[in-house]
Amino acid sequence: MTNKYPVTGAGLGLRRSLLEALSSADDAVDFMEVAPENWINVGGRFGRQLREYTERYPLLCHGLSLSIAGPAELDWELLKNIKQFMRDHQVRCYSEHLSYCSDDGHLYDLLPIPFTGDAVKFVANRIRQVQDFLEQPMAIENISYYAAPQQELSEIDFICAVLEEADCDLLLDVNNIYVNSINHGYDADDFLAALPGERIAYGHIAGHFVEAEDLLIDTHGADVIDPVWRLLDSAYQHFGVFPTLLERDFNLPPVNELLAEVDAIKMRQKGAVIALPENVDSDQRELQA
Fold it and tell me: How far apart are CA 175 and CA 205, in angstroms?
């Protein structure tokens, strides 16, 4: 599936605690992203404030609880609400994690699934069902994970197989690649280069917590570090510039510091456009302009 990006530039995840602080952000942010589960059927003051933002900025939805790879039946009531929310707010793209978070009940964590051929077929079928129901493509995010049960396939081969079998888009999380490369001992640049760049819908970048020299925890609660910035630069060199969003979920700094990191994304995008390789076609160059 060849896609044109749903948004352009640099974005920021919208949290309720940021509603007031970001009210004067204007063109410092190009697009925003919300977890639909946190906003569906929200009215009153928060609902009005959300509407103000969605009228000012292109909006993306990044789901938390669909459990796309889980054993339980897909939550069709949730999907119905997501579809209506997307229509109400002209949402440009819906994404979810390549993981599961439920069984008989909600597990409140994003857990890895076995990297097996059977799992590829299972999760790809569920992704196709969701895309058919929403009547549009969805993007699947490469997750950070801390155990690798039944690893018949490598992580990169598993992700590529799911994307191909499901014919869906990729939400490329650069920090997750870096975290996994340290935790599981592989080369982040080699992993990045093996991804199908033509499927990228947009990207994430975030900070993490250093538990030990060989154990990083993906927290979205710290500043982005230099090796992750460099990996983002490498992604732009490989694939051309794609829209990229800063994730910050807690331990929020003053809003000017958040916007400085968003601006750092923009500066890297501008620098990468200048240095786009000759094999990037003219249509893609126009997208990055």
Answer: 5
Q: Which of 223, 176, 163, 200 is nearest to 288 (CA)?
A: 200
d(Cα 78, Cα 76) in Å, to the nearest integer?
5
Q: What are residue 286's phi and psi, to 5 degrees?
A: -65, -40
Given a contact cutoff of 8 angstroms between Cβ atoms, the answer to whether 119 and 126 are in contact is no
First to last CA, the chain: 23
| CA distance linking residue 152 with residue 84, whole number of Å | 39
Distance CA 172, CA 112 (A): 17
| pLDDT over 90 (residue 226) | yes
Confidence grade of residue 2 (pLDDT, cut at 50, 70, 90)? very low
Q: Crossing angle, helix 226-239 and helix 255-274, to 10 degrees?
A: 40
Predicted pLDDT at 104: 53
- Residue 191 burial class via C-beta count within 10 angstroms: exposed 0-12, middle 13-18, buried 19 and up: buried
Q: Tell me: the pLDDT tens digits for 70-112?
A: 888 999 999 999 999 999 999 999 999 998 775 555 444 567 7
Phi, psi of 170 (to 5 degrees): -115, 130
| Closest by CA position to 60, among listed 98, 127, 10 | 10
Which three-class secondary structure state does DSSP give residue 271?
A: helix
pLDDT, position 5: 97
pLDDT of residue 197: 97
d(CA 235, CA 223): 19
Cβ-based neighbour number of residue 106 at 10 Å:
13
Instruction: Of 189, 191, 129, 183, give the one whose Cα is nearest residue 158.
Output: 191
Amino acid at 112: P
Q: Is this structure's pTM higher than 0.85?
A: yes
CATH classification number, 10-288, choose in 3.30.70.360, 3.40.190.10, 3.20.20.150, 3.30.70.3270: 3.20.20.150
Domain ranges of the chain: 10-288
